[in-house]
Design brief:
binds copper (II) ion; about 110 residues; OB fold (Dihydrolipoamide Acetyltransferase, E2P)
Length: about 110
């Protein structure tokens, strides 16, 4: 319970942080980037099994220079299985391509 509250507080705090404008997602130079993973915390807004995607309101991801925002990610079938609308989760993201590899409820 403590963990859940801490995670919820973190998301709230992150959401309140001023957004730093930064383009995200694939760019013309994306193919030259090496694949890397990043960790994020967010709340699941919707899950679309048909398209294999998850919409999250995530906090800033410092390692990627991303501000907090709501966006839709592609997710692996395994990650989709653990995704439930309304949950606060920690997720592992692969870039470039913004593919969610894993979702862990908090
Ligand atoms: Cu985003």
């Amino acid at each position: 319970m403590k963990l859940v509250l801490a995670a919820a507080a973190a998301v709230t705090a992150l959401a309140a942080a001023p957004a730093v404008a930064q383009p995200m997602g694939a760019t013309s130079g994306a193919s030259a980037e090496a694949a890397k993973t990043a960790e994020g915390v967010g709340q699941i807004k919707s899950v679309d099994a048909k398209t294999g995607s998850v919409t999250l309101h995530h906090g800033p991801i410092a390692s990627l220079g991303w501000p907090a925002m709501t966006m839709t990610f592609k997710a692996t079938p395994e990650a989709l299985k653990t995704a439930k609308v309304g949950q606060t989760v920690k997720f592992t993201l692969q870039t470039p391509g913004n593919l969610i590899l894993a979702i862990q409820p908090q």
